[in-house]
Design goal:
Layout (H helix, E strand, L loop, with lengths): L1 E12 L2 E13 L4 E5 L6 H8 L7 E6 L2 E2 L5 H11 E5 L10 H12 L4 H11 L16 H13 L5 E5 L7 H18 L2 E6 L2 H4 L4 E6 L2 E7 L8 H5 L1
Parallel strand pairs: 3-8, 3-9, 6-7, 7-8
Antiparallel strand pairs: 1-2, 1-4, 4-5, 9-10
Helix pairs in contact: 3-4, 3-5, 4-5, 5-6
């Protein structure tokens, strides 16, 4: 599904070039649950931005579902990103004045989709938030509930890939486990490919595969023994 072939990313700064990625090669199949780990400056956030079509590689090829997307222009990347990807962030990125259900509707508004309220309600239900939460704003929700709203907002467009940047970084241990269990459910019941960036080994251990980065390079790619890879048909059955 996702293939990176010798992908490099270089940023030009006043102090000279910064080599954020150095020839990364990576393949991720549909329905995998993958953690990308590394210290600050390892290149994991750059990797996430390229995977999510938020940035383009300086060189190399990015192939998504058989299509080379390395050189798409901004409009083409935005269109593809809006239909193929869901994003979840550490800070939730919820809008203070909007209720939970309005937050989830927002991507559908941008798409001009029909039945927005019904689809948003179903997405909230899928992450364990019933109608009693629909009219609550962010300040009326716990951190875990806010992250569930953010996940519902990302899945309402029915993405094939979910990218989560430090999704448990602001949560306590118990709530982090609940969020990771929710990601696991999305992988196993919906066949969504979930890729998380984390620096927490205990969080990465809950994924099926860990890709470790150092200085812009992939130095380790380990599939956990408990992982049983499903085909897309099995995942959605």
């Amino acid at each position: 599904m996702i293939e990176l072939h010798d992908v490099a990313k270089t940023y030009v700064t006043g102090a000279g070039p910064v080599y954020a990625l150095r020839g990364a090669n990576l393949t991720i199949e549909r329905g995998e649950f993958v953690a990308i780990m590394g210290q600050s400056g390892s290149g994991k956030s750059t990797m996430m931005n390229i995977l999510g079509l938020l940035d383009r590689p300086s060189s190399g090829r990015y192939v998504l579902e058989g299509q080379d997307v390395s050189d798409l222009d901004a409009d083409e990347r935005a269109r593809l990103r809006g239909h193929e990807f869901g994003f979840v962030f550490q800070s939730y990125n919820l809008i203070p004045r909007l209720s939970a259900i309005e937050q989830v509707e927002l991507p559908l508004v941008y798409q001009g989709a029909a039945n927005r309220r019904e689809r948003a309600a179903r997405a909230l239900q899928r992450v364990g938030l019933d109608a009693s939460f629909h009219k609550r704003g962010p300040t009326q929700l716990s951190g875990g509930q806010q992250q569930r709203v953010a996940i519902a907002r990302s899945i309402v467009v029915e993405p094939r890939v979910m990218l989560a940047d430090e999704p448990t970084g602001a949560l306590d241990t118990a709530t982090s486990a609940e969020v990771m269990a929710l990601f696991r459910e999305l992988v196993e019941t919906q066949g969504i490919t979930v890729i998380i960036v984390t620096h927490e080994p205990d969080i990465a251990a809950l994924c099926d595969r860990v890709v470790r980065m150092v200085d812009g390079q992939i130095v380790e790619d380990i599939e956990h023994p408990h992982h049983v890879r499903r085909s897309p048909g099995e995942a959605s059955a």
